[in-house]
Specification:
Helix content: 25-40%
Shape: globular
Order of helices and strands: HEHHHHHEEHEEEEEEEEEE
Largest sheet: 8 strands, antiparallel
CATH topology: Jelly Rolls
Number of helices: 7
Strand content: 15-25%
Oligomer: single chain
Radius of gyration: 18 Å
Number of domains: 1
Number of strands: 13
CATH class: Mainly Beta
Distance between the termini: 31 Å
């Protein structure tokens, strides 16, 4: 078997699991230096906004600073989305190649890309059970790429998913919990916690039910969530420009 045919078989296996389970997990997909470069840019933005220098994005000194200055954390969360860094990161071949295996070559990237800064013990932005489709809207072939920037386990808040739940179709998010809405009829489904290493890539359908878990560690948990759509599919303008790929 040639290297090329072995790769094709692997891609086919990912596509088969994605079709039946609503997700696929690709280990060691993204080079560590690409992640480190983005985090270096992020620390530069922290310095520009706050006037303080930090050498480690996961260090306890940055955690203490954000705890004392939560408005700065909120400002950085917003400002980093105005930079070209997130879009550039989301267009690397390590992500696009499997995305195109799932939704075809004619696909696009939403310019609105969440860069999450999940602080230890903070609950105000904790993601509860939902389908991305409820918020992203548009077509149901949209794919979310969930990319942790460090090893992510139960302790620091890995994702939990309901495999196969994309087959339920759009589910009413009928339960109001503060400013958030949760579907109340889903909890008989299988739940799996997805622990990941730095460099792993989780791709899932917009209809797959999932939730974040509370960061119980002493460090910040960073993740990026670019979303991709077939170019012919309906999209919600609130998700920003669709960048053809």
């Amino acid at each position: 078997m040639t290297v090329q045919s072995a790769r094709s078989k692997t891609a086919g296996q990912f596509a088969k699991q994605y079709s039946s389970k609503g997700y696929c997990l690709i280990r060691d997909a993204i080079p560590a230096d690409a992640i480190d470069h983005l985090l270096t840019n992020y620390l530069g933005l922290v310095h520009y906004i706050s006037g303080h220098r930090f050498s480690d994005p996961h260090g306890v000194d940055l955690v203490a600073f954000y705890n004392a200055n939560p408005t700065v954390e909120s400002e950085i969360y917003g400002k980093i989305r105005e930079t070209p860094w997130l879009s550039e990161f989301a267009q690397q071949a390590a992500i696009l190649d499997p995305i195109k295996q799932l939704i075809g070559d004619e696909c696009g990237l939403f310019s609105k890309i969440p860069f999450r800064i999940d602080m230890p013990q903070w609950t105000k932005e904790l993601a509860l059970w939902h389908q991305d489709h409820f918020y992203v809207r548009g077509n149901t072939d949209i794919v979310t790429a969930w990319i942790p920037f460090q090893t992510t386990t139960y302790i620091n808040g890995c994702l939990s998913i309901m495999p196969g739940s994309h087959l339920l179709g759009p589910v009413p998010h009928d339960l109001e919990l503060g400013k958030k809405r949760v579907p109340s009829t889903i909890f008989k489904n299988e739940i799996r916690m997805v622990e990941m290493n730095k460099g792993d890539l989780l791709l899932f359908n917009a209809l797959m039910l999932h939730t974040g878990n509370l960061n119980l560690s002493q460090s910040i948990r960073y993740s990026l969530q670019p979303r991709y759509t077939p170019l012919h599919g309906e999209v919600d303008p609130a998700m920003g420009e669709v960048i053809p790929l």
